[in-house]
Design brief:
By secondary structure, this protein is of the alpha/beta class. The chain has a domain at about 100-255 and about 350-390: 3-Layer(aba) Sandwich (Rossmann fold). Helix content is about 50%, strand content about 10%. Helix 7 (about 135-140) links the parallel strand 1 (about 125) and strand 2. Helix 12 crosses helix 13 (about 305-315). The model has no long low-confidence stretch (mean pLDDT about 90). The chain binds S-adenosylmethionine. S-adenosylmethionine binds near residues 150 and 152.
């Protein structure tokens, strides 16, 4: 694990000029001058080709050598084991749980049930457990009492009620995990699961569990950018020793994949991107900076009115020669280029994410845990699918 972590850190340091600029914001991207052949090829791609390359970096065979080399390197470095027993058909519908969420918690349960059954913790803690859907499944399948901790009192109450309804031992504690003084039922002999506890909430779990030498942990981190500090501050001794840093933009990039978004949601994103670019082009023509964020409902106007409204936000009128259809065609072309150029940046998304996860896993290894990282479900079920399982050697 240390070797892979080091390789990822080296890759990201070396390639920072390629992934840091956002083609949406910086046009042309600064790396276009150093990799002109790659830039030309990416700018030239048709929307359907971009869609295909977003799914699979090797979808086209005629890519320039420099791009192919980066695609191969990032793919090789992010190859990771799968927990066995994925892709089972879904179980019977769980109350209050949507289809994909159910697939996710079932996959998590399948991945961890063997170690839980082996470790026999007196009680499991479901850290930031929401309404306790995972708790309920673990309590049912592993015959283990589970204690849900969540900030929301309503969620905690729901988790107890839903657990009681199926006759399993799920109790709840409402509180902020970053400041919580743990009650006795959370102490010692417990295992801890944290599925999608955002950013620093996973770090709070790591801190809490290592302080108490909790024997067994299973964590699926998400929202790596959610932390009090901007950017990545290393957790492992390895990266701390090198004073390794990633900027906040890298962490947002890591989770910006469209993942399992519906075709409708994808289409809406493309349209919004095109309209934002349309206004940015008008602003750039007047020497102005880009528009900045726009509320979803602001897009409810027809295109021409949207441009007029956005310019008015800056106290500007549309040019007298403005022709909505012609300008839309110009923006659509610019959007195609932005999407094409963004493919290069996209190659580094998973390396950043894996580094954030391996760094956390390595920090557990640093204090004596045996640690494994593997995917627990397909990315179509959840793009944040990297599971850390850690046990003190005496636990399993
Ligand atoms: C993304 S949800 C994950 C819920 C659940 N683990 C799951 O996978 O369905 C994150 C949960 O963290 C809870 N949360 C947010 N901040 C918290 C905090 N400071 N302390 C405890 N829970 C918190 C939220 O209420 C929410 O239920």
């Amino acid at each position: 694990m240390q070797q892979r972590l080091q390789q990822l850190a080296d890759l990201l340091e070396r390639t920072q000029p390629l992934w840091e600029p956002r083609p949406f914001r910086q046009r042309p991207a600064s790396w276009e001058a150093t990799l002109p052949e790659v830039a030309l090829w990416l700018r030239d791609r048709r929307p359907a080709e971009i869609d295909a390359l977003e799914q699979d970096p090797f979808a086209l065979s005629d890519m320039p050598g420099a791009y192919a080399a980066l695609a191969m390197e990032t793919t090789a470095l992010t190859k990771i084991a799968q927990w066995p027993r994925q892709n089972r058909p879904p179980g019977k519908p769980m109350r209050g749980v949507k289809g994909r969420k159910q697939r996710q918690i079932e996959a998590f349960q399948l991945a961890v049930s063997a170690p839980i059954t082996q470790a026999q913790p007196q009680r499991l803690i479901d850290w930031c457990g929401g309404k306790g859907h995972l708790s309920r499944l673990l309590a049912t399948q592993c015959s283990c009492p589970v204690c849900v901790i969540d900030l929301s009192e309503a969620f905690v109450t729901a988790s107890e009620q839903l657990g009681a309804a199926v006759g399993v031992d799920v109790t709840g504690i409402a509180g902020d995990v970053t400041t919580l003084t743990p009650p006795p039922q959370m102490d010692s002999a417990a295992g801890l699961v944290a599925l999608h506890a955002c950013g620093m909430l996973t770090d709070a779990a790591l801190h809490w569990a290592t302080q108490r030498e909790v024997p067994w942990l299973a964590l699926v981190p998400c929202c790596h950018h959610k932390a009090p500090e901007a950017g990545w501050r290393p957790r492992s001794k390895l990266l701390m020793g090198q004073d390794f840093r990633l900027p906040a933009t890298a962490l947002r990039m890591a989770i910006s994949d469209e993942g399992p978004a519906s075709p409708g949601a994808r289409q809406r994103r493309r349209r919004e991107m095109c309209w934002r670019i349309a206004v940015d082009l008008l602003l750039a023509d007047r020497g102005e900076t880009p528009l900045g964020s726009v509320g979803r409902t602001d897009y409810n106007r027809p295109f021409g009115e949207f441009c007029q409204w956005a310019m008015a936000r800056r106290g500007l009128d549309l040019p007298t020669t403005f022709d909505a259809d012609r300008h839309h065609r110009r923006a659509a072309e610019a959007t195609r280029h932005v999407r094409g150029l963004s493919l290069l940046r996209g190659l580094f998304r998973r390396p950043v994410e894996l580094l954030c996860v391996l760094d956390r896993a390595q920090s557990l290894a640093d204090v004596g845990y045996q640690t494994q990282v593997a995917t627990f479900c397909e990315r179509a079920i959840s793009p944040r699918n990297l599971l850390i399982v850690a046990s003190r050697s005496s636990a399993i």
